[in-house]
Amino acid sequence: LKKMASHLPKSTTPIFVLCFFFLAFLTASARPVQRQLAGSRRPLREKTSHLHFYFHDIVSGRNPTAVNIVRPANISSAAGFGNVAMIDDPLTEGPELSSKLIGRAQGFYALDGQQETTLLMACTYVFLEGKYNGSTLSILGRNAPMHAVREMPVVGGSGLFRLARGYAVARTHQYDANTGDANVEYNVYVIHY
């Protein structure tokens, strides 16, 4: 400490020594901090949840749930490169659209592959039923719908899914090539507090 202080001007040496001892005192008296959510007095405990549901992307008919909002001019791509769709897709318990509605997938997807059909998915799963009612999960990642299995990251959430992280596994349950409508099975694995 004397060696470090000897390189400082004489007027700053007492301040330096005082600051050093103050920081040493704070470090020695610091207690481990437990994570808590805002407004909660309980310490956080990490949980893992598995959610299973079906995502219905309906582009045909009178009430589509996915609407093309950007069509690129002068680009010819078999993969649909440059198209962007806004979505408000129902999430159901079972594969039938008539099964119990548990939430909605809201956001957009953009076709970002020139050679292969791939999507940039940016959406929020808004849960409307059960214990997760009012909670959300946010997904952001690559989706290659022609692959049998796709994995996308869960990048956050709200409500019971605050500070969420995890991944979503998607499998196409049914795809109608004539209409473009798709039914996708999702298994989502989430770590949250």
List its salient traits.
AOC barrel-like; 2 helices; Allene_oxi_cyc_Dirigent; 8-stranded antiparallel beta barrel; Dirigent; Dirigent protein; mainly beta; single chain; 193 residues
Short description:
The protein has 2 helices and 9 strands; from the N terminus they run ααβββββββββ. It is mainly β and 193 residues long. The protein has an 8-stranded antiparallel beta barrel.
> What is the terminal separation in angstroms?
44 Å
Q: What is the mean pLDDT?
A: 85
Rounded to the nearest angstrom, the radius of gyration is: 25 Å
Number of domains: 1
Based on the coordinates given, report the CATH architecture.
Answer: Beta Barrel
Give me the CATH fold name.
AOC barrel-like
Q: CATH-wise, what's the superfamily?
A: Allene oxide cyclase-like
Strand content: 35-45%
Q: Any idea of the CATH class?
A: Mainly Beta
Compile the SSE list and pairings.
Layout (H helix, E strand, L loop, with lengths): L1 H5 L6 H17 L17 E11 L8 E5 L13 E9 L8 E11 L7 E9 L8 E8 L6 E9 L6 E11 L6 E11 L1
Antiparallel strand pairs: 1-3, 1-9, 2-3, 3-4, 4-5, 5-6, 6-7, 7-8, 8-9
InterPro entries: Allene_oxi_cyc_Dirigent (IPR044859), Dirigent (IPR004265)
Protein name: Dirigent protein
Subunit structure: Homodimer.
